[in-house]
Amino acid sequence: MSDPTSLPNFPPPPQEHPLTGRVLDALQDLQMSPNLDKAGDVAFEVQGQKLFVKVIEGEQFDIMRIYGQWQIASSVPEELFTRLNGCNDVTLGVNLVKAGIASGNLVLAVEQIIARSEPPKPKVQIATGLLLQALQLWHRNVIAKAQVERGEEPDLPEGAPEGTEVGPWLSVGSRGQQAPGDGNADGGGAPGDQA
What is the pTM of this model? Predict the structure, then answer.
């Protein structure tokens, strides 16, 4: 007889948590070694990053929230405003991803509506890819913004083509600067123009 502690987690019965079971199946198919906790949330790893899935059940459809949280490294500038501007860039620039800072941690999340009979595997793959890209974008933007604020030339990503510039960013830098050619904050146009 084998050790019962070495057995994998099995999805709950379909009548109890149908989307959670389908998410577990999808993550197992993707070889991401999911684990189900007592609250019904699923933890898994992709490219060395630990992510989580929370299922929110509704009457007509369910919502699948895939999220991760990362302790911010000491190499990242400590100014909260710069960090939040990086979150703003991610939220505005990366389709579906929401970003924020909570207790000194970067939190990224993707929420998707899942129909009752829909297989979640394609949306799991999309969400995990978006989260990992957003993590890189946030880190790169926060470092570059801090360099610009210090009057330094920002570092380009490794392997960037010649002529590549860092920015422009979707959010305004922490000094409240506008990029050349930007209109006013209400969406552009000359000052005093009315919509």
Answer: 0.74
**No. of H helices and E strands in the chain?**
3, 6
pLDDT, tens only, 80-93: 999 999 999 999 88
Under a CB-based contact definition with an 8 Å cutoff, are residues 24 and 31 in contact? no
Report pLDDT digits (tens) over 171-184.
654 444 444 444 44
**Cα-based torsion angle of the residue sequence 177, 180, 184, 188 in order, rounded to the nearest 10 degrees:** -150
- Residue 191, SS3 per DSSP: coil
Retrieve residue 117's tokens: 């009979």
Nearest-Å Rg of the Cα atoms of the chain is: 21
Is residue 154 within 8 Å of residue 148, measured between CB atoms? yes
Q: Which long-range contacts (CB under 8 A, 24 or more apart) does 121-129 make?
A: 121/26, 121/29, 121/30, 123/64, 124/23, 124/26, 124/27, 124/30, 124/53, 124/64, 124/66, 125/30, 126/96, 127/64, 127/66, 127/96, 128/46, 128/51, 128/66
First to last CA, the chain: 74
